[in-house]
Amino acid sequence: MLKYIVTGAAQGIGFEIVKSILLQGDYVIWNDVNQEHIDKAQAQLHHQGLYQFSSICADASSDDFLESLSHLIDQTPGTLAGCVCNAGITTFGDFWSYTKESLDQILKINIKGTFFLAQLVAKKLRDADLGGSILLMSSVTGHIAHPDLAAYGMTKAALNQLAKNLVIDLSPYQIRINTISPGATLTERTLSDQDYRREWSSITPMGCPATVEDIAQAALFFLSPKSKHVTGQSLVIDGGWTSVGIPPK
């Protein structure tokens, strides 16, 4: 049995990735910052007969989380094979009024949290000498400009470059690192906006936003041996939106 880590995973894309890995028969260690969301997610997994997981309630960018995760990796069943660095936040704000506090927060979670999670997992994989796959969660905003998302887009573009740079460090140990960049995706958060589906369907060439299953299937590809010679790459999953770049109204 293989073992994977997924952060930010009690809802949306992260939760679907966890569920998809569990359905393969593998073990997952996952986290979220909200205990109520964790409890709900665990109940959903149990309802589907899925029990091979451990969850951690913690900020994925905190030292406490990394310490707890390190212990769980060593103590839980399965051979560590990969990680999806999914935890992140989105903060909207125009360039002229964006605050230092907001920038500190988004850099801490999106950049620092991802960097040191990848470092921890890479060390575990290196020491086990079995190779593996690390997947970073970027965004279409790391590839194309979007109104009021300068800071967020900057962090996501940085993750694309991080994956390219870490090819140098990780390839000698047969550890692959890639990013996926979702576009508009139907999740609990986005569906709370009653206009979201209609608006993004009208400007997406394929005629609809992505589902969480669309993103999870791409993640499974990068975690699997099917992508064993793919590293340092970023896959955009947006129904063609970045090719035309029509902004939402």
Automatic annotation (TrEMBL):
Query: What are this entry's molecular-function GO terms?
Result: oxidoreductase activity, acting on NAD(P)H, oxygen as acceptor
- Give the UniProt keywords, A-Z: Oxidoreductase
The species is: Aquirufa rosea
Please indicate if the UniProt record lists Transmembrane as a keyword: no
Q: Which InterPro entries match?
A: NAD(P)-bd_dom_sf (IPR036291), SDR_fam (IPR002347)
What is the similarity comment for this entry? Answer: Belongs to the short-chain dehydrogenases/reductases (SDR) family.
What CDD domains is this protein classified in? SDR_c
| Source superkingdom | Bacteria
**Key word Oxidoreductase present in the record?**
yes
Q: What is this protein called?
A: SDR family oxidoreductase
